[in-house]
Design brief:
Elements (H helix, E strand, L loop, with lengths): L7 E15 H4 L6 E17 L12 E14 L2 E12 L2 E4 L7 E4 L3 E11 L3 E8 L18 E8 L4
Antiparallel strand pairs: 1-2, 2-3, 3-4, 4-7, 5-6, 7-8, 8-9
Length: about 160
Amino acid sequence: IWKSVNYTRINTLGIETSSLFNLKELIAPHFLINNIYIGYSYIYQDKNEGAGYISQYALNYLKHKFVARIEHEVWNKITASWAFRCQKREGSYTDYSQNKNGENVKFKSYGTLDLKISWTTPKYIIYIEGNNLFDKTYYDIGNVPQPGIWIKGGANYRFNL
């Protein structure tokens, strides 16, 4: 029988850095690429468990995360934003698929590519976004596979109050 109890002490150390380069301001106002964003985070954890207790999740954490995003003009008021994300999660999960049959499996590194196309006016923004464009199968937490390609859309409206 499992129950949640805080018998474990986790020591965490990490760093996060990011940069946004506005190329329209840095290079030229008519440059095709508006912005480049680069971000990276790193976390290290270790734990001291109480005697006889085993944690099923304490060291399942995102160790490395790298994000690179490019935003550029497409035409008139339409812009595109491409985002590449690469992640490495520490820990493992129990794989109940036919091939693994309850085997403990370490998380694998993975990368995804997303695209967001926006139409921007002073009053509103309308957008459509596609995530995981290469339909990468990956597990982010637990033994639940994350969605393949998925598409969503929306709108933002600015109220002047």
